[in-house]
Design goal:
heterodimer; A: about 500 residues; about 75% helix; globular; B: mainly alpha; two-stranded antiparallel sheet; 13 helices
Chain lengths: ~500, ~325
Amino acid sequence: MLSFIVRRVFVSALLLLGASFIMYILTALSGDPLEELRGSRDPNRDLLIQLRSDQLNLDVPAPLRYFGWLAGAAKCLIPMANSCDLGVNILNQPVTDLIPMALDSTIQLITGATLLAIVVGITIGIVSALRHNTGFDYSVTFIIFLLFSMPAFWIAVLLKEFLAIGFNDFLAQPVISLPAILGIAVVAGIIWQAMVAGPRRRRVIVFVISGLATTALLVFFNLSDWFRNPGLGAVMIAVSAFGIAVLVTGLIAGFKDRRAMTTALINAGLAVIAYFTLQNLFDMSSWATISILVVATLVVGLASGWLVGGDDRAVSMRIGAITAVLSGGLLLIDRFMQSWALYTADRAIGGRPIATVGSSTPTLDGDIWIMGIDTFTHFLLPTISLTLISLAGYTRYVRSGMLDVLDQDYIRTARAKGLDERTVIVRHAFRNALIPLATLVAADIGAIIGGAIITEQVFAISGMGQLFIRSLSNVDPNPVMAYFVVVSIVALIANLIADLSYAALDPRVRTH
Amino acid sequence: MTQVLETEKKTEQVGHSQARLIFGRFVEHKIALVSILIVAFITVLSWSVVGVGSIPGWWHLTYNQLNPLIDGGRPTMSVVPQWLGGEGVFLGEHPFGQDRIGKDYFAMTMRGIQNSLTVMFIVGILATVIGTVIGAVAGYYRGVIDAILMRFTDLIIIIPVIVIGALVGSIASTLGGAIDGPVILGILLGLFTWTTLARLVRGEFFTLREREFVEAARVAGASDARIIFKHILPNAIGVVIVAATLLMAGAILLEVALGFLGLGVRPPDVSLGRLISENQSSFAHRPWLFWWPGLFIITLALCINFIGDGLRDAFDPRQRRFRPRRQKKVLK
């Protein structure tokens, strides 16, 4: 194993060296960094040209200049020396200062989108595989095809024009009209009955119930002026926390497991108590307190599972932790919602909260809740558009993986020996269907670090993609190279992890 | 031997060749068939509107000529009633409207489609040839040759395609307009996008080279080249065709993405992606400038994806992807 890793790292390093040389030459070939200066009418024109040539070593031909760059970049390998030299951009800023900021924005952007895409993708993929050859399955497959055929910028621009502007306009008079409510309710009902499937009677019941629930919820939103003063409130939190508890237990352990159910319900109860006791603490919280609370929640969840668990402690602890974290998340969401009215009323926001460009409101100032909402409103649209793009891949992958697994003999064996359907799906099928996904996720993270170029461009987020594309159009080789090195190192490491994780998760791979 | 087989078949049932079976399965895939018709229609439309080389097309306006603005540049086509030109003509002077300075948007869109399709076809052919040859050689010879070729493939994979798009402008100006921008872009992209195909073909060759017919050919004294191209490749053709189709769908999206970023096909020539990026700010006032190019991009990419899906079904019936009508019969 070790020799495999060492050999792999060595080959990767050589590859990187070769590719960086090609990159350098290609970037140098793509244009003339002095072009805008040559056309300028500045009296100091010649001086400026001379200055920039010196900064970027333009008098040296590109293949030789590469080795100068390489010598500087090689210094990054010396640990703790802080002597990293990736050159300067055409404005004479050191590239090593530009990269961290850009990386920060990109990571903020892609973390949410990737997590969301994985969770939603897995869910839709699994449901679609379980409802194979139904209307739901066909619709999902068609939507995947559609998303695969849509350019990223098209989705992004549409979101900007319709979702952002539409929602901001809607907030001026936040009442959903009656026909709209009925329309949404019918659509929700159709989706739910398609997901549940089964005999016609069950479908009709699901359709009616989900339709009525949606209508009731929307009417409640209208009556309580929810969009201006959103919040979950004690009742909603209690209902959702106990709902989460039941759902998590039902999925992971089955309803028959009394101890697991007890653990989950205890944690839901604790979340409701916490809602009443923690509000004052929340009001003066910083990110540090929140992180401590998150850790505490996790510990409480695990501990309650340990105490109640009995013979099957691991399952109870897992359920305890998941329930605790999810229902704790509800409290945070509720607290953010409480600051929403304050945020939208701020002069810097002016009642139009959903932003279409940038990653924060420059003049805004406030506590973590206000700033948190600000980040949320800025990253909402780019996250949705990135999610939609990567969602298609995950859904298709999970769906076909799940279909393959469901066809295996061991699934038939599991059913034949009388296991209930939940155990067959969750324990036997789901886990094995996720193995190939581990590879995909690792490889995707490698690609996405540099891959959000278009989304960043449309939403004016100054991340890695923006740095790259801007430098490339200015024929500014040093930032381009820095981008390339960072992105390809991450990609190579991610690929290595993908291969290793595959071998770790699937013992059959090692026998090859 | 073959004669015996044939007479046997005739007594029992009529035999079909492999190609016939595949064609039969493909024809059953109605969505793919419709998709082929749509792509063919759009191809013919765009080329006949713009014209080829110095031969002008049938549309009386060109994509770079300035025209007086009519009705604020709104589309004159009478599909949407409230934008009716008033004379009741169906196409009107500017069916897709005009951009801010009065260029005919129909001609521009068609020119953009033509460029996208040019890039797509060139990438499709070039990348398929390179990928197939490299994958076939690597998979057939294995060992050192395979290792070298695959490391070379890895090298090409790492290089971001966007840099390639940035090269087009400078290369076009070095050549002094001898070759069209889209052609250069297609060739460059083709040189860098064959990697997935090479890996697929290599994997296919790995298994096929162990089969008995390869052994038989070798015993009969066939040369390596003959075994690779005459014996193994025809058996791997399904993988190649399907991957090539999906590659072409990817090439269209890549071309418009490069156009959107201001790379690739440069002005005064037109790229669908550039049309959208230039006009996204005027979405509120001139939405048609955004809708037309987008509509055609999605239609083309979707159709080619469906064609690829139909081909995959036809070549490998075990792996059905998207075929509602046939699958309904097996509904449990």
